[in-house]
Input
Amino acid sequence: MTRSRSVAAVLSLATLVTGPLGCGTPKRTDPIVIVDPGGGRGSVSDPGGGSGSGSALVASGPRADAKPISKTVENGLTWLSKHQLAGGGWGQGDEAAGMGHGMDGMRDQSNVADSSMALLAFLRAGHTPNRGAHRDAVKKGIDYVIAEVESSDSDSLYVSSVRGTRVQAKIGPYADTFAALMVLSEARGTMRDGPANARLDAALKKVVRKIERNQRQDGTWEGGGWAPVLSQALAAKGMNRAAQQGIEVSEVALDRLEDQAHSQVNLQTNTFSADAAAGVGLYGGAAATAAARDTATTRKVKAESMKAQAARAENQTPDVPSKAEIAAAEKRADESGKAAAKVEGALIANLSNDSFIAGFGNNGGEEFLSYMMISESLVAKGGDEWSKWDAQITTLVNKVQNEDGSWTGHHCITGRTFCTAAALLVLMGDRTPAPVEIAG
Output
């Protein structure tokens, strides 16, 4: 009999990673999550407070060759910390003068999208609610995001009552939802105690269910915005990151996301659909490549975890993957990886084109976000393409930092919070959390 297994169901049966990340194998049966968003030393925490919530054991962390945190990054993080609002969130901050004053009221009004981007930057740099010079700011910020999710309804795709932000207008009204999914996934298991971790898990699962419930058959969501393809990519990142961190995510939803990403590229001409990308090839290429690679990574994690689980089992039981199931998962992972590599190839073919890299023509938050997505995809690929891109984009981003440590956009998304956070994430591309192979 064929048994369908979600990524979370497979990972939830995994045992502790051996070696430095595992820090020994405690004798316990409650869920454990091992996460290390950027510090290089594994931390063990209990997201469910021993409640047996079905959480998975997942190991993640930066790559072994991740660069040290630069002074440029430190200055950016300090700027973000200084501009956190009293309630724990961030507003969009000052915009470029050319944007006028129509959104001045949003400068100091907290919103989930800007707050989530800021928090991702702190997490990637190794600051969690438990450690780092900015741990208190991170705790306050995550508490703000969780509270917004908790206050939202169960059915719609919104996670906040705040409307009319620049980010929503430019990349879609649900950018807050998709950004919240990313930060809650990456923060999973890092809160200060069991109840706080359980609260985060509940909010994370609520966001996943809202996204699944509202996804259309073609893998997209209703909305709008100037370049909604970038929100689409954030959604794909968030759903895959949640699955990789042990949250149960619908296989149908992941399949749709993968298919939608591949539908956006013409492999014969190495071009990307401009329909939802404001006619900007950079946005479409970054989004399609990110979604394809993220889903391929999830498939790989699932297959490796099934294989490790079966190797540890003494007897074949209904909970142990069969050889046929493992073979099918490995085949799917291989196909997904090869397909993602083709999309990456189309993107790489464009990276020597200055007009492609320029995006809309000058730096806006959309450019920084696209660069972040490209970095996260290419660092997973590794090799010369990654090294060349990282050197190129690091130089570009470093030279446009403001003296106060922030970055400003020059079109569309120009708010300093979003642009600063996205720029920092570009510079820390090699600190993108990577699922670690689970040892048997």
Observations:
- The CA atoms of residues 239 and 333 lie 17 Å apart.
